Amino acid sequence: EHTTLGRFDLAAESERFPPGDASSGRRAETPVKDERLRVVLMTMRAAAELARHDAPGPIAIQTLRGRFAVSVGGRDLDLPTGSLAAIA
After folding, report:
1. Residues 18, 49, 64, 42: is their CA dihedral positive or negative?
2. Residue 36's CB: how many other CB atoms inside 10 A?
3. What is the pTM of this model?
4. Which of 1, 41, 45, 83 would be 79's cystine partner, CB 3.0–4.6 Å?
5. Which own/partner contact pairs does 2-6 have at CB distance under 8 Å and 24+ positions apart?
């Protein structure tokens, strides 16, 4: 049996949770948290950085707006708007 864990308008959610005035320039909200799946919506101001980050399993990074530069295993990935990277 399949259960829906949630349905989200990501553009609206990112407007609802802007990065604000925190010195880090970013904000993270977790709309889905299940034992096998966690979805984190991260909003960031331009030029904000997220240092080394570890996750307990494979992750996907999808750029909704703007551009991300991600380093994975010594490789640099450029993720412009609309792109998706899946990382083991």
Report:
1. negative
2. 6
3. 0.80
4. 83
5. 5/32, 5/34, 5/37, 6/31, 6/32, 6/39
Q: What span, in angstroms and rounded, lies between the C-alpha atoms of 57 and 35?
A: 11
**3-class DSSP state for residue 76?**
strand
Query: What's the one-letter identity of residue 74?
Result: G
Question: Would you place residue 2 in the very low, low, confident or very high pLDDT band (cuts 50, 70, 90)?
Answer: confident
The most distant pair of C-alpha atoms in the chain lies apart, rounded to whole Å, by 44
Q: Which of 33-37, 65-69, 79-83 has the lowest mean pLDDT?
A: 33-37
Query: What is the arithmetic mean of pLDDT over 70-85?
Result: 93
**Which two tokens mark 4?**
């829906």
Between the two ends of the chain, the Cα-to-Cα distance in Å is 27
Helices (H), 1-88: 10-16
Token pair in block for residue 12:
């609206």
